[in-house]
Amino acid sequence: MRLMVCSRESVENYHGHPVSHFVSLIDPGEKDPSIPPPSVEKDLSLAFSDLDDIEVTLPRFKRYQPPEREHIEELVGFGREMSDLSEWGLLLNCEAGISRSPAAAIIILTAAGYRPQTAFGLVRRVQPEMLPNRRMLRLSDEVLDTGGALHRMAEIHRQKAFLRAGYEDPTLVRQREAQLEAQQSWWKRWMRSVARRLRRENRKVPGPK
Predict the structure, then answer these.
(1) Helices (H), 43-169
(2) Over the stretch 16-59, which tens digit does the pLDDT of each residue have?
(3) Residues 22 and 41: beta-carbon distance below 8 Å
(4) DSSP assigned state of 39
(5) Per-residue DSSP letter, 92
(6) How far apart are CA 61 and CA 144, in angstroms?
(7) Tell me, which fold does domain 2-165 have in CATH?
(8) What band does 177 get if pLDDT is binned at 50, 70 and 90?
(9) Is the model's pTM score more than 0.90?
(10) Biggest CA-to-CA distance, the chain
(11) Smallest Cα–Cα separation from 103: which of 88, 86, 120, 87?
């Protein structure tokens, strides 16, 4: 078994490696620029943006396509087809090689028969800087019936990574932004209801005789 996870621009560095399975994760509307190594026997390309659950709730991200269950099901199917193989080389890539492609690798390995903890550890070994997309892993927990294990490991790994780095996880900023959006939305709804009530009351007041 050979596992490789990289950025889009690094794919050509693996053209001399024994890669039998190739997965490319791109943004919607983007033409996949990565060329699979010549040894590839089966490949998969999926298009969705690198969004987590918290970002999906924010209006400024509405125009982007988040990972959905159907994307996860394709990755799971890809992994299950690999489960009967005694030998394979899997190369996955995305824009930076730290979010979507590590998450996809974890999903594929779990679908291929590896225990969730083993799959997570194998991917972390080949891509120590990974911050796997948590929405992808939450959805994969549902598809693979892993009881939330993959999402929990991603959360713990992310917390430790930012703690070691010494700066705040951008997700926390997104959460505060979502809370502010919710408060503003509530305030706007309340103001509209007050305005409607005042208009109704004004209509009931008789005019001067």
Answers:
(1) 53-56, 69-82, 100-111, 116-126, 134-144, 149-165
(2) 999 999 999 999 998 888 889 999 999 999 999 999 998 888 88
(3) no
(4) T
(5) E
(6) 28
(7) Protein-Tyrosine Phosphatase; Chain A (3.90.190)
(8) confident
(9) no
(10) 95
(11) 120
